From TrEMBL:
In the C-terminal section; belongs to the PPC synthetase family. In the N-terminal section; belongs to the HFCD (homo-oligomeric flavin containing Cys decarboxylase) superfamily. The gene is coaBC. CTP binds at D99, K109, P125, D126, I127, L128, F143, K157, K161. It comes from Parazoarcus communis. The chain holds residues 181 to 399 of 401 of the full protein. This is Coenzyme A biosynthesis bifunctional protein CoaBC. GO terms for cellular component: phosphopantothenoylcysteine decarboxylase complex.
Length: 219
């Protein structure tokens, strides 16, 4: 691992799930553990970057040398990202952000009844798409977690959100565990990596993005 490839760079990352309140004790969420995002934050810090990690609720300790900002919902995550964004060189969206939130969370705990229940959902803002479409956008790296047709969906997301780089994984490979199988997508195509620990893959991702960031580092 080439050290200090990101010296002098500021990196903002999102990690973990978001919690979208249904009532004071219930939420819509997903099973992201935060491990991939925390591994990447660690790798960025080890590569010399100033790192701000905007994290949904996870059971992980903040990596050494990383400023962690805790959030719950997608709206809180968006606000924390935009607070951290000034002077950022790189933004990496690893979080599994809930695409929808309950339109009107109940103020008090919803009581059980024998009836069926409907929860009306409204779309959350797409944080990565918003960051990437800014005129002063940092270098943006997206993630795509898919349950099938990974290559087509991943490359579609990269192009739709106008991202120079995206990391694709299957939910069954990457969500929750310590290992992952990923492919990197950029303007030059698809670069699959062998299955490995998330800590190792994080270093490969940092190498790849450092090569794309610095014109002098391009092959
Ligand atoms: O946390 P782990 O257990 O280690 O699992 C890792 C992971 C599977 C969560 C991770 O590797 C991963 O794939 N993260 C992205 C999951 C995801 O929600 O992907 P998506 O295809 O729904 O979103 C595409 C991209 O847009 C992502 O970079 C996401 O952070 C971003 N996004 C999505 C929706 C939204 N409202 N705002 C966003 O910023």
């Amino acid at each position: 691992f080439t050290p200090k490839r990101l010296a002098g760079r500021k990196v903002v990352l999102t990690a973990g799930p978001t919690f979208e309140a249904v009532d004071p004790v219930r939420a819509i969420t997903n099973t992201s553990s935060g491990k991939m995002g925390y591994a990447l934050a660690t790798a960025c810090a080890r590569a010399g970057a100033e790192v701000v990690l905007v994290s949904g609720p996870v059971a992980l300790a903040a990596p050494a040398g990383v400023l962690r900002v805790d959030v719950r919902s997608a709206l809180e995550m968006r606000a924390a990202v935009f607070d951290a964004l000034p002077a950022a060189d790189v933004f990496i969206g690893v979080a599994a952000v809930a695409d929808y939130r309950p339109l009107q969370p109940a103020e008090h705990k919803i009581k059980k009844s024998g009836d069926t229940m409907r929860i009306e959902l409204t779309p959350n803002p797409d944080i990565l798409a918003e960051v990437a479409s800014r005129p002063d956008a940092p270098f943006c790296v997206g993630f795509a977690a898919e349950s099938r047709d990974l290559d087509a969906y991943a490359e579609g997301k990269r192009k739709n959100k106008k991202l120079p780089m995206l990391v694709g994984n299957l939910v069954a490979d990457g969500m929750g565990g310590d290992d992952n199988t990923i492919a990197l997508y950029d303007e030059r195509g698809r670069h699959p990596l062998p299955r490995a620990a998330k800590s190792m893959l994080a270093q490969e991702i940092v190498e790849h993005l450092a090569n794309l960031l610095a014109p002098a580092g391009r092959e």
